Amino acid sequence: MIFGADYYPEQWTPKDWEEDIRIMKDMGLTRVRLAEFSWALVEPREGKFDFSFWKKMLDLFHKHKMDVILGTPTATFPPWLAKKYPDVLQVRDGVLRNIGTRRQACFSSPNYRKAVVKVVTKMAQALGNHPAVIGWQIDNEIGHEGSDIDHSETSLKAFRLWLKSKYKTIQNLNDNWGNIFWGVIFNDWNEIPIPGLHVSAGFNPSMIQDFYRFHSDTIVDFVKLQSDIVRKFSPNRKLTTNLYPSPFLPVIDMSELFTHLDYVSWDNYPTWGDQEEPFPHPFISAMHQYNRGLKDLPFTVMEQISGFQGHDTLGYLPAPGQVQLWMKQAIVQGAEQIIFFRYRTARFGQEQLCYGILDHDKSLTDRYLELQKGISEILPEAKDFAAEHFPAEVAVLHDIENARNFKHQPISSGLKHSPVPFAQVGYDIEMATWFAGLNILNVNAHFLPISKADFSKYKVLVLPLYAMIDTSIVKKLEQFVKEGGVLVLGYRAGLKDKNSWMLDSQVPGPFSEMAGVKVRKFEAVGNRNVKFRFRVFLGTCSKICEILEPTTAKVWARYSDNKKFYKGKPVITCNRFGKGSVVYVGASLSPISFMLLYRRTLRMAGIPFTFYGPTVERSFRTGKSKDYEIFINHSGKKAFAGFKLLKPYEVRILTKTKK
């Protein structure tokens, strides 16, 4: 188990460095991340490289027995590069991403890629074999802040080449997109436009889906390009890159991206900007499990909140004990490395409001002392279980193709959420809500990419928002159920093929037989609540309300809302199929209603669960020498977990005899 900090010695003076290292080591930190924004420092003019500053810093950290993760400095570039090669700049929704900020690179630009190859090669050659360097972070938060989509002319040219490689002939493209609709028949590749902002009616959904796939492939290839260079010149070091919430904010297939890297990292900020309160704890656990699940391995938090954060505004101040709790929650959910952002708060630049472990001065803060204490408390147990597999019999499955699909065609306004202009995260929120119902019942659950998950490891699979299907995956799910598994299938399942064409069958399409139900009518109700009855319990749902027509399935719940003509019609069904069952959920349930659904489903699958109230989270971990039952009280008040009284923000670890 490793603890460290994100450190920026280039932002401080030489008289600070030795003292900073001492303060970090006294806290219990043994590792730093360096250099991820240092391109202008190492290549101040084109072709003039100078790595002397970082060599000096690596020598200093090695002297003090601290390890270093180096960041390739490609998340922003020097002004000279854009001045000489204007095509390296992105355009997003008609706005040029100019010099002065970050993540402005056009990943399709040959000039940008050539410059990246040079700087990464020189950096890896100069620093990659230093004994202090134990690993690399490729780029930084790649695709964040809307940089996953580029509407520049350079991007358009690359998109056309990508399409030509995929479809071979323009006729194949027209046929696969269904361009006969509205008569948009292309005769030449150069007639294809960028599917960007529009006045009213949008672009073809098939075209948009391919535009997203093109950007994903381009960025995945960009990460591979860098990782190949680093592996060549800095062998035997582990490679990663750091992701960010929300997990499906970008269009990038992160599960594919990480096939070129050794482990997953992400940046954990439970509160940001002017939030009035932190994200709910089940949402944070869902994010941890998403990142753990990309490689189904222990992960790193490369930026763990240590103060409170924002660029322009600030809001919620974490209560005493809360930053320590978030650190421990990350470890419980599968992190084996915690790197705090940041060691000391910047005095200048765009992140003056991103408070770190220390404030703008060097006096020890309450946060420093709290995290120092938390590290010493959890380290003995974390050394035993952190690197071990996170056990679970339930998995929630996500799919990047459907995440992209619901960005541009959410169907219901309830599945649209844009907290900032570049973000459409309705899919993210819905997926986290389906996960949260399991988390609040204190059931260990995985959150996995459907394309890479091994279904045979689980008793229950939960599959929301699987509208765009892959027929090979449908067959695997059918086999899973036939052999005794329980599949919880969400609304609008089996709606489209991978070309984004509607299937010529009733929802749930290829799932109809195993689900024992068909759907010919549905209503998009936005965020309005619709009542239903689950046995004797009342529930509410929203977003989409399907009117289910069971063929062989039994009804589990019916609409009970007097305002709806479909009162009395089924909303949830269960069908026996082979040795297993398919539970079909025809609406987006409220969190409490999800609890009711999962209680019955888990009982049917023989999986134990316990509800300790809305603020208590319990997890199970298996260590090398012992097993652990871990209770977290996410409330600022005392809470009971059975007969155990938990203090505010307490994390209590109970050891168990290993089975």
Oligomeric description of these chains = single chain
Spatial ordering of strands, largest sheet: 13-12-14-15-20-19-18-16-17-21
Query: In the CATH hierarchy, what is the superfamily of the domain at 394-605?
Result: Class I glutamine amidotransferase (GATase) domain
CATH topology of the domain at 394-605: Rossmann fold
- Major pleated sheet: 10 strands, mixed
What is the averaged pLDDT score? 97
Strand content: 15-25%
By CATH, the architecture of the domain at 394-605 is named: 3-Layer(aba) Sandwich
- The N- and C-terminal alpha carbons lie at a distance of 23 Å
Query: Which word captures the global form?
Result: globular
Task: Give the fraction of residues assigned to helices.
Answer: 25-40%
DSSP strand count: 26
Poorly predicted regions: none
Structural class: alpha/beta
Number of helices: 17
- What is the CATH level 1 assignment of the domain at 394-605? Alpha Beta
Family: Belongs to the glycosyl hydrolase 42 family.
Domain Glycoside hydrolase family 42 N-terminal: 6-378
EC number: 3.2.1.23
Enzyme class: hydrolase
